[in-house]
Amino acid sequence: MYGDLANKLILEAKRTQQLNHKQKHAQLPMYHEDLIRNIIKEVTQLKKNTDFLKDQQEQLQNQEGNDNGLDENVLKCQYFVTLLCMERNKRCLLAYQKLRCDMLDSLAWSNSNSSIMELESNDLSHQEQEYLKEYGELITDLKSGEWADIDLSGSLTPPSDVFIDVRVLKDAGEIQTEYGVFNLIKDSQFFVRQSDVERLIQQGYLQKI
Amino acid sequence: MDIDIEDILAELDRDTTAVDESLPSHDEIPSESNTTSHTLLNNSLETGLNNDKNGKRITTTVATDNNLRIVSPELSFKQLMTCWRNERCAPELLPFPHELMKRMMSRIQEQMEYIENISMGFLENDHTHYSDHSPQDRNKLATDDDPVATRMNSNHDSKLPLLCMEAEIERVKFVIRSFIRCRLSKIDKFSLYLRQLKEDDTNIISLDEILSREELEYHERHFLISLKLLNDSVLKYMPTELQAINDTEGSVNMIEEPDWNKFVFIHVVGPPDGNLEKDSSLTTNEFNKYCYSVTIPELKEDVELTINSIYVMRYEVIRDLLKAGKVELI
Predict the structure, then answer these.
(1) H-helix or E-strand spanning residue B89
(2) Which site among A161, B152, B196, B274 is 20 to 30 Å from B322 CA-CA?
(3) CATH 1.20.58.1030 is held by the domain A4-144
(4) Where in chain B are all domains bearing CATH 1.20.58.1030?
(5) B98-125+135-187 fold
(6) CB of A148 within 8 Å of any CB in chain B?
(7) Percentage helix, strand, coil, to 5, in chain B?
């Protein structure tokens, strides 16, 4: 039946959502291009049907006199159901797209310029890549505006310690931060101010102890 | 015979100390003359805390309806915390606290500069930063800044105040960051609804009041790019009658409104100025306690909200009380 394909898409969306729930930095699964294309094909088909139905209705109206009341009702019903099918498909497609949209948003907030985004860009549709880029720009603009003093994309866990111990997870050589230079040698430990290394923890170089 | 002289004593107390009741007494409270002169100078409604020449902190005053309210940094932080909590718990987007945020932002900037200046004082031995300054210059700089800085200068090894200031500023920044992020996520969620508000002329509250300038811009731009995405990937292929993104006629309403009936925890704090008698919506119940009485329209049930107690209540019911600051969400 019509709408079954869309149902499949929604199940996919649900799975993505659950996947996202479990791990923090869940990857966005591949964009279901084929399925979506099929649904859109179905919509085009339905659209043709409605056009056909409309034509028929006009014909019926033209040949007056006959007792076509029954036929007219049947046509109306058919037209309405087709419309509902299309609406259903639209809803499913939008829901799927919106979910991906939201995930892209959170991705853009969590690490706006790290490598994960490039890794994933194969899985995104062309439009999504464009969207992600534009949204990234929007965030950058927002951060450099009035609220520049507050690093908006910074950590959302309240700062409980001023100084923390961190362990270096990845060799990164000498890294320049705003506040000074660190020599990140693998498996070394530092006792540093939290605000200095927050960025590096987010990017996965350091681990908080 | 007992003569009650409480009120006379209260009058006496007010005279000598001139302390606002809501504030604990400490050096941040200016004397009365100081306040008025400052008001005249500052033309009120100006940004927050300044350090005057004596190094004493002055609190600015804000004129609301001709009565002066003292705004100390402490009080505005309290207000910020309330705003933050309310925003996090409320289902709808609350109006943006324009004045408060302006004050907080300028204060953060000042404090950050201040910390920077103090920590410069610590770099006494490090001449790389200061090669063009003579030591006298540096000392003068510190003295001009603030007496605290000089005190710190004479006593380098005590870094505790500096540490506290930094920790403090981190905390304030966290609260503001969390506040704004929370609002932004709500803006994303109610994007279409807010747009509808904007187009609707009969609306009582304007969008400029709900959102700040940055948020307005964010809303606009994010709406446009997500609309573009949805248009290109889905809506383009739909028949013309189904191409609208904000369709309210269909079987499902596409504009998501805030869930007005969401249950929220509230703490009834009473009128913001603490004056129970003046509040006309307050009544006393049979136990002689002050309470607000509200009605839940669907159940046709009246509820008494006694002051200083906690309830779980529908948001719609307490919305007006929340706007007036008489209850807080927790």
Answers:
(1) helix B73-89
(2) B196
(3) yes
(4) 98-125+135-187
(5) Methane Monooxygenase Hydroxylase; Chain G, domain 1 (1.20.58)
(6) no
(7) 50, 15, 35
